[in-house]
Amino acid sequence: SGRAKFEQYVTSRMRIYDRNGNGILEQAEWRRLSVRDGADSNGDKIITLNELATHLATSWRNKQPGSHAS
Q1: Which of 1, 42, 47, 60 lies in the 20 to 30 Å Cα band around 12?
Q2: What is the pLDDT of residues 36-48, one digit of tens each?
Q3: CA 33 to CA 14: how far, in whole Å?
């Protein structure tokens, strides 16, 4: 399903950028990630898997034809 593929994608991104393998992206790790702006939704200087998934989903929706994002 589309949801399962999306979850696999997000998990794969986390694995690639999570250099120390602790399951979160710390500032030094997520600076290399092109979607870093806005991904740290609570401002704690780390990006969790849930934050990354939410950010990627929002970014993807905003890029779709007919989107009203600015």
Answers
A1: 42
A2: 568 889 999 899 9
A3: 10
Residue 49: the pLDDT is 94
What is the dihedral angle through the alpha carbons of 62, 51, 13, 45, rounded to the nearest 10 degrees? 120
SS3 for 46?
A: strand
DSSP of 10-37: HHHHHHHH-TT-SSSEEHHHHTTSTT-T
How would you label 46-69 residue by residue, b for 16+ Cβ within 10 Å and e otherwise?
Answer: bbbbebbbebbeeeeeeeeeeeee
State mean pLDDT over 17-29. Answer: 92
Q: CB-based contacts of 23: which residues, under 8 Å, 6+ apart?
A: 14, 48, 49
DSSP 8-class letter at 44? S
CA distance 39 to 5: 20
